[in-house]
Amino acid sequence: MVERPLYIVRGLSKNGTVTYNCPTPEWAVRKNRDLIQSKLTDVTITGPDGRILSLRELEALSDEGAVPKACALASRA
Fold first, then answer.
1. CA 8, 14, 18 angle in degrees (round to 5)?
2. pTM over 0.85
3. Per the domain annotation, does 2 fall within a domain?
């Protein structure tokens, strides 16, 4: 079985580090938005190759980037 590359999304909270190992760029975009909305600091995204990605670069890799943030937030309500 071949392991799927992971996108790692991390942020700092007052209680420590929050880390998500995301199997797809779409999931990583959602988790990045969740961490920012939760007021975590120093949110970073690491790609499968170990390179730090910007949110713009990650959105370019995913279908999630086509969904405006307002629509994503409204769908959760």
1. 15
2. no
3. no
**68 within domain boundaries:** yes
pLDDT tens for 1-59 read 556 679 999 999 999 999 999 999 999 999 999 999 999 999 999 999 999 999 889 88
Residues 6+ apart with CB under 8 A from 31: 9, 20, 22
User: Does 1 fall in a domain?
Assistant: no
Report helix angle 69-76 to 25-37, nearest 10. 80
The dihedrals phi and psi of 22, each to the nearest 5 degrees, come to -100, 130
Q: Please, what sign has the CA dihedral across residues 21, 24, 47, 32?
A: negative
Residues 6+ apart with CB under 8 A from 64: 25, 26, 29, 30, 72
Rounded distance, CA 27 to CA 9, Å?
Answer: 10
Please tell me the predicted confidence (pLDDT) of residue 72.
Answer: 45
